[in-house]
Design goal:
It is a single chain. This protein is of the alpha/beta class. The protein has a single domain, classed as Glutaredoxin. It contains six helices and six strands, in the order αβαβαβαβαββα. The chain has a six-stranded mixed β-sheet, with helices on both faces.
């Protein structure tokens, strides 16, 4: 006796072989069609002082976090994942805007794409925005109230706890006091 199941032929599609083939096809299909990595909602747009002002005006009604950064700035590179995570965590409750300062636009776009930045960003290639906002070193993070008033400025790399504290404070400012 050869140990074969009576009636089974080599290469015959038995229920077990069918299940194995189905599982392999399913795994290959899922692997080939897995969810794509997120891409930025907006690419790095050319910026100006006027564009920054218009963006801040259009964001009124919600707190705004503006982060000034550059790919050549080591603390900026370290802080970017925290800013991206905060933008994801707060969702539509807070608006975020990135300002890439005096950088190569293509390098900055690649940097933002690799870090899955999902908020709008503008490029300040000539430093006009940086100058108008009196930004001396990088990174700098500005926190605006929902009414458009500048509430806080963080000079230097911001840590998670400080970022969360400042944003949470912005969300509280202007709420009526419970009686």
């Amino acid at each position: 006796m050869s140990g074969r199941t009576p009636g089974a032929r080599d290469g015959a599609l038995t229920p077990l072989r069918f299940a194995r083939c189905f599982a392999i096809v399913l795994l290959v299909t899922v692997a080939c069609h897995s969810a794509p990595k997120p891409v930025p909602q907006e690419t790095l747009s050319p910026g100006s002082v006027e564009i920054l002002r218009k963006a801040l005006t259009s964001f009124r009604g919600k707190p705004v976090v503006v982060n000034y950064w550059a790919t050549w700035c080591i603390p900026c590179r370290a802080e970017m994942p925290r800013i991206v995570a905060a933008a994801a965590r707060y969702g539509s409750a807070v608006r975020f805007l990135g300002v890439d300062v005096e950088d190569d636009t293509k390098t900055a776009e690649d940097f933002a794409r690799q870090r899955a930045v999902q908020y709008p960003m503008v490029s300040d290639t000539q430093g006009a925005i940086r100058s108008a906002e009196h930004i001396v070193g990088l990174p700098v993070t500005q926190f605006y109230r929902a009414d458009g008033q500048l509430a806080f400025v963080n000079n230097g790399e911001i840590q998670d706890a400080d970022l969360k504290k400042r944003i949470d404070e912005l969300l509280v400012i202007g709420r009526p006091v419970a009686s």
